[in-house]
Specification:
Blueprint: H1 2-27, H2 33-43, H3 46-59, H4 65-77, H5 83-197, H6 203-292, H7 295-307, H8 309-324
Helix pairs in contact: 4-5, 5-6, 5-7, 5-8, 7-8
């Protein structure tokens, strides 16, 4: 009886197990890509699950370098990572810090390039302004000198006209003197005729008359010379006084032009020298930056910052953030 009961119990258990297995089998969905993905997710580690979507967004440009650094810094702190996963996280953290240092360096180099361009542009603008000022001075000088030349020519023309007038006056005086001399000679002849008709024998009176005539002739010739001197003096006054004033103005104008141009040339040289000095100083800073952040130095700094978060924060505050702004 006991064996029969045991057989019945085994048979019942077997039937129940078979029925349960059939229900379980019929409840399993058919195999699809969706079920495969779900099964794969179940088998992925915490690290793989966390990094898959992050790296996808990172490849799409949705993550900044700082976010990459922060993400993998947290990954290296997680206790859920295996040894190989921790090494992978550290490598990615190292690459992100290295990239961050390189980006900061490039940003600083771009800043120096922009600064150099601004210095050159400002210097060029100032030189253009000075050269324009120089051109204005030259134009003003030419204009004023041309005006003085015209004024000088006008004075010379006026002097020539006055000289022509004086020449006409002199000719008129010459003619008047010739006329007077003719009448005097004629009168002398008439007097000689009259005297001859009434001649007496007194020699003294004749000598006195001849002396008076010679004196008058001498005075007359001297007076004519004085008139000639007066004309010559007027000519000299016209040719020298006014024209000398014009020459003085021309000399002063040329002196002003030369002095102004010299000052501008000196200013241009000073701007050039200042520009070269500023560019040389920036080049020195660029050389120092390249030396301080060479490939070897960046690798060393990135490794140190990767292994020591506090040191990374110091680097970030001292180098990365200031150079990136």
């Amino acid at each position: 009886k006991s064996f029969a009961n045991m057989a019945n119990a085994i048979s019942s258990a077997f039937n129940a197990t078979r029925s349960s297995m059939q229900e379980t089998y019929t409840s399993i969905p058919p195999y699809t890509a969706q079920t495969a993905s779900a099964a794969s997710t179940v088998t992925k580690s915490f690290y793989d699950q966390e990094t898959e979507m992050f790296e996808r967004l990172n490849r799409m440009g949705q993550k900044t370098t700082q976010e990459v650094v922060d993400f993998y810094r947290e990954m290296t702190k997680s206790a859920k990572l295996s040894a190989s996963e921790r090494l992978d996280a550290e490598e990615k953290l190292f690459d992100a810090i290295k990239r961050q240092l390189q980006e900061a360096k490039e940003a600083q180099l771009d800043y120096y390039d922009d600064l150099k361009n601004k210095i050159e542009a400002n210097a060029d603008a100032e030189i253009d302004r000075l050269e324009s000022q120089r051109d204005s001075i030259e134009a003003s000088y030419d204009s004023q000198r041309e005006a003085l030349e015209d004024q000088k020519e006008a004075i010379e023309d006026a002097a020539d006209a006055q000289l022509d007038a004086l020449d006409r006056v002199e000719k008129a005086k010459d003619r008047a003197r010739e006329r007077d001399e003719y009448y005097r000679d004629r009168e002398d002849i008439l007097q000689d005729i009259d005297s001859a008709s009434r001649r007496s024998g007194i020699d003294a009176r004749r000598d006195e008359a001849e002396a008076r005539e010679r004196l008058e002739e001498l005075d007359r010739e001297y007076q004519e010379k004085l008139e000639d001197y007066e004309i010559e003096d007027q000519r000299e006054a016209i040719e020298e006084a006014q024209l000398a004033a014009i020459e003085e103005q021309m000399d002063a104008l040329e002196e002003w032009r030369d002095s102004s141009i010299e000052d501008i040339e000196a200013s241009i040289d000073a701007v050039e020298a200042q520009k070269e000095a500023q560019l040389a100083a920036i080049d020195e800073q660029i050389a120092a930056l390249n030396e301080a952040f060479s490939e070897e130095q960046i690798n060393m700094l990135a490794y140190q910052a990767m292994t020591n978060e506090e040191l990374y924060n110091q680097y970030y505050n001292q180098f990365i953030e200031p150079m990136s702004q």
